[in-house]
Amino acid sequence: MLGKILIYTGNGEGKTTAALGHAVRFAGYGRNVAILQFMKGRKTGEYRFIEDNKFIDICLFGPPFFLATSQATLGGWIKGKGVEFVSLDLFTGKRKSKRVAADKLASHLRLSSFEAHKRKAKKGVEFANELLRNRKYKLIILDEILYAIKFKLVNEDEIISLLERRKNINFILTGRFASERIIKIADLVTHLEEKKHYFYEEKKTFPGLDF
């Protein structure tokens, strides 16, 4: 049977969460799963929980930060030219001076340059091709790969070629901005829509809920 391609996209929360749910379900049947997280370089809650699972392997292919925060930069990095706009208001609080926030932001930007992301993403694509060749895993999750395509960190043609060679291996792709080409070859596409998000009011994320 030809492997299925599942897409979780849209501007709503839950794309990675849905993909990880499939990973847990797959592993529950004793089947091997590989999770490649693009544009992510920190051990999040899900990473810590599943890294010792004998049926799931998870690998990070990104710097420690997607710039300072993905919500702050979605509108400014799409052309692959670096940061066009990041508001320091997102990183200042009642107890933090703007100077402290600016220093922190500058540090994050150095660690998370476009070239740094591109190098990591390239390694991720190479690793995905390696997994496809050895065929150990029956489900491969390319988490945030749709972001990586949109931000020109990886070539969409390479990803489509990877999917077309899948044979009986299933793939899940997550991230905003799923292109029409990707949607066309998918077997399932779920578009998550945001109605409300506390981030825009509180300007912060929460361990367990967000990462």
What does this molecule look like?
The chain has a 6-stranded parallel beta sheet with strand order 3-2-4-5-1-6. The protein is 40% helix and 15% strand. The model is unreliable at 68-102 (pLDDT under 50). The longest helix has 21 residues, at 114-134. It has helices at 15-28, 45-50, 70-73, 98-111, 114-134, 145-150, 156-164, 180-185, 199-202, and strands at 5-9, 33-38, 56-61, 139-143, 170-174, 188-191. The protein contains 9 helices and 6 strands, in the order βαβαβαααβααβαβα. It has 2 domains: 5-63 and 114-202, 3-Layer(aba) Sandwich (Rossmann fold); 67-112, no CATH class. The chain has 211 residues and is α/β, with parallel strands linked by helices. The termini are far apart.
- Supply the CATH architecture of the largest domain: 3-Layer(aba) Sandwich
Summed over residues and divided by their number, the pLDDT gives a mean of 83
Query: Are there runs of 5+ residues with pLDDT below 50, and where?
Result: 68-102
CATH level-1 class of the largest domain? Alpha Beta
**What is the total domain count?**
2
Q: Structural class given helices, strands, pairing?
A: alpha/beta
Quick one: how many beta strands?
6
Q: List the helices and strands in order.
A: EHEHEHHHEHHEHEH
The CATH superfamily name of the largest domain is: P-loop containing nucleotide triphosphate hydrolases
**Share of helix, binned:** 25-40%
How large is the count of helical segments? 9
Question: Spatial order of the strands in the main sheet?
Answer: 3-2-4-5-1-6
Distance between the termini: 35 Å
CATH fold descriptor of the largest domain? Rossmann fold
